[in-house]
Amino acid sequence: MADVDPGQEPAPAPSEAIGGKQGRPGLSYVLPLRWTEPGPIEELAAYLRSLAPVVDEVLVVDGSPSPLFGHHAAALRGVARHLAPHPDLDFRMGKVNGVVTGVREASHRWLVLADDDVRYDAPALRRTAALLAEADLVRPQNYFDQLPWHARWDTARSLLNRVFTGDPTFPVGDFPGTLAVRRETFLASGAYDGDALFENLELMRTVRAAGGTVLTPLDLYVARRPPSAAHFLSQRVRQAYDDFAIPARIGAFLAVVPLAVDSLRRGQGRRLGAAGLFSILLAEIGRRRAAGAERFPLSGSLMAPAWIAERSICAWLALGAKLRGGVRYGNGRLDHSATSMRRLRRRYSESKSSDGFSANGRPLSDGFSANGRPLSARKPTALCVPSQKGRI
């Protein structure tokens, strides 16, 4: 059992706390956190306090070192259950340690999982909860509520994803910093691989492969605070490495640079110009979908050619990193982007029998994975969690 703030009582078991506000099942908000330098904890506490009319429980799973952990505990007292990740969890993507701990500790059946830079409002939370009545996992769409130049640049990525991602299972919709999931579905799936770099896609695929329903409402908008420009720039190759999880996507980006060079060599610059205009058109389609123009700036569409050029160059740098054993992450390298749907489906078909038990006869909903292992790390390593805000 992880540490709990002094003076705070442990949460009741989920079976004892299923009733929520407005007659729906209870809703727990799980926020994994790890900062290595002082951050805006008071602002975060104020945001979490504002969720009280809609959320039944807030859990902040904090992997920050001392004395920051203690400072966070004091700021969050009376606002959230503040606890450390469970010590048996040592995934390389340390955020997953926080998520799994939060799922284990949650008192309610419906969960919102959110990064520290995500900012829900009450209507978005209520709609998210309503959609969990229809699905096992809900995938909102993030937009930046502040627009420095790099947020506009990255908005181009979101807009293009709202048209086509390249992933056959999830072909439309951006990959957000927040997901909502049913607790029983998460446990029945055996959690997800915390050594996968593209961890939100990994969770989505895991739930789908385990037989769950995933909804992507393109009009469910949730605000997100942009990172610093320095952190944004430092993540270009790492985020390009995520695309190895989607072969068609990484293949397309790797093809752009040689095709562009060949066009210039042949004096066919107009072809490049036409391709750039086409990318702006695609991004604008994504911006206008589901009333998105109210949330996304026009400049995001106009930056689509620049974003594609950047991602294409970074794709080659990511390929170089892959050949060297993976992209740099913390003090080492990570080579695994995400598990393919084919492999996940094969894993569940081999381990899950028709009566809901794993191959060794253990119920899949009791906190054990489909292969009978507890919800803990597959590969021991040091905890390391980079948040979107760049506090590692």
Number of helices: 14
Structural class computed from helices and strand pairing: alpha/beta
Strand order of the largest sheet: 3-2-1-4-8-6-9
CATH class of the largest domain: Alpha Beta
**Rg (CA only):** 21 Å
Structural overview:
- With 392 residues, the chain is of the alpha/beta class.
- 40% of the residues lie in helices and 12% in strands.
- The protein has helices at 41-50, 68-76, 94-105, 122-131, 149-161, 183-188, 199-209, 229-234, 236-241, 247-265, 269-288, 298-302, 304-323, 341-351; strands spanning 27-33, 57-62, 81-83, 110-114, 118-119, 137-138, 141-144, 178-182, 214-215, 221-224, 327-329, 332-334.
- The strands form 3 sheets. The chain has a 7-stranded mixed sheet, with helices on both faces. Strands 5-10-7 form a 3-stranded mixed sheet. Strands 11-12 form a two-stranded antiparallel ribbon.
- Helix 7 (199-209) packs across helix 14 (341-351).
- The protein is globular and about 65 Å long.
